[in-house]
Amino acid sequence: MYVQRLHQFATLKEIAEKLESGLVQSTDLKHFLSQICCEEYPDVHRFEAEQVDLERHFPTYSESTECTGTQTWGDFKLGRLPRFVYDDAKTEMESPLISSGKGVSDRMNPESSQEFKEQYNNALQYFMSRCQHHIHKLVTDPKTKEEKRLVPNACASKKNRKECKHEAPWRNRVSPAWMSSPLIVCKGIAKKFGLKTSGVRNWMGQTLGMRNNEWLNGCMPGLCVAFAGSNSDVKPNDRLPIMASTHEKCCTRKRCLKRGV
Q1: What residue ranges do the domains of the chain occupy?
Q2: pTM attached to this predicted model
Q3: How many whole angstroms separate alpha carbon 205 and alpha carbon 221?
Q4: Using CA of residue 249, residue 250, residue 252, residue 256, what is the dihedral sign?
Q5: How far is CA 118 from the centre of its chain?
Q6: What's the rounded Cα separation, in Å, for the pair 124 and 15?
Q7: Distance (Å) of CA 38 to CA 31, 234, 258
Q8: Are 199 and 174 in contact (CB under 8 A)?
Q9: Given 2, 83, 98, 260, which residue has the most CB atoms within 10 angstroms?
């Protein structure tokens, strides 16, 4: 699917002009990116409680570890679309606004909507924790007897084999308590979060999304559930020019808006 949008055709200068004239808003892009790249578990506390077992069973997640009691699969299974998705497809779609005989309109049943949301979040939690969780396995140092995470060969940086080339874990990108929505990264925001402002992987003008775990790879929730757990990493790279209409209020660095800085 190719989404037709502003970045497909316009330069940053043209985007800046449209932002200045009010034709587009930076909040629209931030909302779009937060939908296609989710970096939050629906229930992060549940994940933290299950993390040790999940990492121990990685990468097979076989019947012996996924099933409790008898060897039968539950509601979710890697590689299988959840049952509730099939059931929902068979259900006749209710009209959002149904007119009754007395002229009073009734909305969609909130109970069925809430039930679907709970099933969806449970499925998303299951698939995210098994396929979007970036893992550096814990190993015991034979000398110190201390546990530490070992960077696997596939993740090792060419410059330093002890560092992850993907920069995981992303501790500096976990959303602090004061952050309530995605942020456009300027030099001030970059300094707050320890993000690069130069080089190939610089963050200038990119969107820092909401994140509640330092090991979670961002993904589009719908694809994560629809692909039944296949790796569905999403790496947005859209940028916006740093200007008055895009500069975040939480940034106190006045020089961000000066020319040539």
Answers
A1: 6-62+83-88+107-134+169-257
A2: 0.85
A3: 24
A4: negative
A5: 18
A6: 34
A7: 11, 9, 32
A8: no
A9: 83
Is the separation of the CB atoms in 129 and 50 below 8 Å? yes
pLDDT digits (tens, 9 = 90+) for 15-45: 999 999 999 999 999 999 999 999 999 999 9
Pick the closest to residue 97 from 106, 88, 89 (CA basis): 106
HSE of 99 in the Cβ direction (CA atoms, 13 Å)? Answer: 3
DSSP strand pairing (183-184 vs 207-208): antiparallel
Name residues whose C-beta falls within 8 Å of residue 172's C-beta, 6 or more positions apart in sequence.
193, 194, 195
Spatial separation of the C-alpha atoms in residues 261 and 251, rounded to whole Å:
15
